Amino acid sequence: MSAIDTFDGDSIRSRLLAYLHGQVGGDVEIGPLKRYTVGFSWLTFGFNAKWNEGGARIERDLILRLGPPSGIFAPYRATPEFLTLQSLAGSGVPVPRAYWCCDDSEALGAPFFVCEFVKGDAPVPWTADGGPAFDETARLNLGDQFLGALAALHNFKWRSAPVAGIGGATDLAQTARSQIAFWEERMRQWSTRRYPMLEWALIWFRARAPIAQRISVVHGDYRIGNFLELDGRISAILDWELVHLGDPMEDLGWICLQAWRGRLPYMCHLFTREELKSKYEALTGTKVDASALHYWEAFGTFKLAVMHLGASYCFETRDFNDLRMAGMGAQLPRMLLQLESVMERAA
Amino acid sequence: MNNSLERLIAGIIATLRSDVIPNVTDAYARGQAIGVIDVLNNIAPRLEWARAPLAEAVAQRRNAVRAVRALVPQAPGGAAGLSDQAIAAASSAELAAERDRLDGEISDLIAWTQGPAAYGDVAAATVLLRQHVHDELTREMKMTKKPLFAEISKATAGGQAKSQS
Predict the structure, then answer these.
(1) Do residues A36 and A44 make contact, with C-beta atoms less than 8 angstroms apart?
(2) Cβ neighbours of A115 in B, within 8 Å
(3) What DSSP letter does each residue of B78-144 carry, written as one string?
(4) Are residues B132 and B75 in the same domain?
(5) How far apart, in whole angstroms, are the C-alpha atoms of residue A82 and residue A115?
(6) Looking at the structure, do residues B58 and B134 belong to the same domain, yes or no?
(7) Mutate to test the interface with B, among A117, A193, A260 (most CBs of B within 10 A)
(8) What is the pLDDT of residues A281-309, one digit of tens each?
(9) Facing residue for A196 by CB, picked from B107, B148, B165
(10) A319 shares a domain with A221
(11) Is B23 found in the same domain as B95?
């Protein structure tokens, strides 16, 4: 079968129907596909499905996530995210239930997985006036849930679960070096132009790579914007495409990025750096090393700057006509100045 | 900007054609959107990136490289760049290529000064390189407008719940 036309919902729907027919082994109905336009990477469609299971007729609202060949992290693999969602079901991390997964492009023309539709709104870090995203009550309430889910993720016993197969670094001394290598490769792939600030940062990261205290499942993009909130409750943690095994401090550093808080003192609009440290320590029983936290904050800023290069590259070379990608590329100087600033603070 | 002018204009036109105009219901607004495409089609062959900021970017990089090499003359040399005369006559595209070549040379100088083989007045060269990188980013920031992420997010959500996106 040919690669997918990312905007042809009818074609995707008919191929999905054939795939699900094979999976549930019988009569299956699916409604129209509704495309959600908010993501930059995976394509997301919502649909209703009905099938027979154990003699009963099942009806579910589901989500189809497709990794398009033109996407920023293409070529994609759906398995890591799927195995993670499967493993974390029933844990203290609220995740959508995972149903089916396929890394073979034969079925739909691109790797994909199907999971439960979860209701909720995703608060974003950008507010019109640069002010707080939450009032004080909501900030404290959501902040505690956000950290509770993170602590549950980092304390999750991954070695005996399917998520052990997602890849990453399991050597305490190699977690940072593994991430440096991964993102340097992306940087070279996405930009032939060399940016002195990024080159400097790579030297800086290599010279200061911390040794992890432990290995956990690392979300890789844990922040405001990637959770759903419904009636004051975090109903799901989303966007697991960068999930890997590694140093849990990496997620904490990412939470501290200026990009998710602007000039506010609240990381991800939810808690101060001190609150993050003390609450995380209390929840996990693991000490947060301040220098490791700063290191991973600096590394996260580098990673986000590289993602900006990826957005430009996708727009330039892959006929990805989403102008938000070009807009991201225009913000690279801002990201590089933030990188300089956080490296100076961490030094 | 990180994208080419040609690709940006092509992307704007494609977005208007495929994503915007089919969803504009007001006839006057639709006519205006098509008018934007018409104008873009006609100005595209006549546009290039502004020459003055590119010439300034090249001049600042050349100055930095010259000053650093005076402090650490043992540092490996870079590829030959454009002559003064060639720069004076260079197009915007040629200036952008020269800027990128100089960024590569500056990156190599950073790597060398931070490496084990560096000698000479490395500390002073490091300070100069850091200052140059900072100053150039600050200069770029003066041309970088605040992103409209808040407005984009609000428009994209459109009151609908985000789900697994």
Answers:
(1) yes
(2) 164
(3) ------HHHHHH--HHHHHHHHHHHHHHHHHHHHHHTSTT--SSHHHHHHHHHHHHHHHHHHHHTTP
(4) yes
(5) 9
(6) yes
(7) A193
(8) 999 999 999 999 999 999 999 999 999 99
(9) B107
(10) yes
(11) no
- For residue A133, CA distances in Å to A39, A222, A320, B150, B161 come to 20, 17, 30, 11, 17
- As for how many domains chain B has, the answer is 2
Residue A328, SS3 per DSSP: helix
- Note the pLDDT of residue A5: 54
The two structure tokens encoding residue A308: 């900006």
Instruction: Please answer whether residues A252 and A296 qualify as being in contact, where contact means their C-beta atoms are separated by less than 8 angstroms.
Output: yes
Distances (CA, A) of A324 to A76, B15, B18, B29: 21, 11, 15, 22
Same domain? B42 vs B66: no
**Residue A140 resides in a domain:** yes
Q: How confident is the model at residue A6 (pLDDT cuts 50, 70, 90)?
A: low
| Residue A40 touches partner B, C-beta closer than 8 Å | no
Q: What is the domain-level CATH number for residue A110?
A: 3.30.200.20
Same domain, B32 and B94: no
Q: Are residues B56 and B37 in the same domain?
A: no
Q: How many domains does chain A have?
A: 2
Indicate whether this complex's ipTM tops 0.85: yes
In a domain, A238, yes or no: yes
Which residues 24-63 in chain B show a CB within 8 A of chain A?
A: none
pLDDT of residue B156: 67
Strand partners for A244: A218
| Phi, psi for A90 (deg, rounded to 5) | 85, 0
Domain interval for residue B80: 51-141
- A76 and A207 in a single domain? The answer is no
Does A53 share its domain with A172?
Answer: no
Q: Cβ contact (<8 Å) for B111 and A199?
A: yes
**pLDDT one-digit tens code per residue, A158-201:** 999 999 999 999 999 999 999 999 999 999 999 999 999 999 99
Q: Which carries the bigger pLDDT value, residue A25 or residue A97?
A: A97
Alpha-carbon span B71 to B129, nearest angstrom: 11
User: DSSP class of residue B19?
Assistant: I
Which two structure tokens, joined as six digits, stand for A272?
């101060």
Select from A119, A127, A334 the Cβ nearest to the Cβ of B141: A334
Candidates A195, A153, A163; CA nearest to A340 is A195
- Segment A25-84, tens digit of pLDDT: 878 999 999 988 766 788 899 999 999 988 899 999 999 999 988 888 888 999 999 999
